[in-house]
């Protein structure tokens, strides 16, 4: 089953700043608005 993981604000901002990480994860639909990651 999928496990929801809450990402801290700083971690979320870091992903957005990096650009690449958020793009890779969002392409799989793992990160929603940079706050929740479903593995």
TrEMBL record:
Keywords: Kinase, Pyruvate, Transferase. It comes from the Bacteria. One of its GO terms (molecular function) is kinase activity. This is Pyruvate kinase. It comes from Halalkalibacter hemicellulosilyticusJCM 9152. The lineage of its organism: Bacteria, Bacillati, Bacillota, Bacilli, Bacillales.
């Amino acid at each position: 089953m999928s496990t929801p993981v809450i990402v801290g604000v700083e971690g979320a901002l870091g992903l957005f700043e990096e650009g690449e990480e958020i793009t890779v994860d969002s392409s799989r639909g793992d990160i929603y608005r940079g706050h929740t990651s479903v593995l």
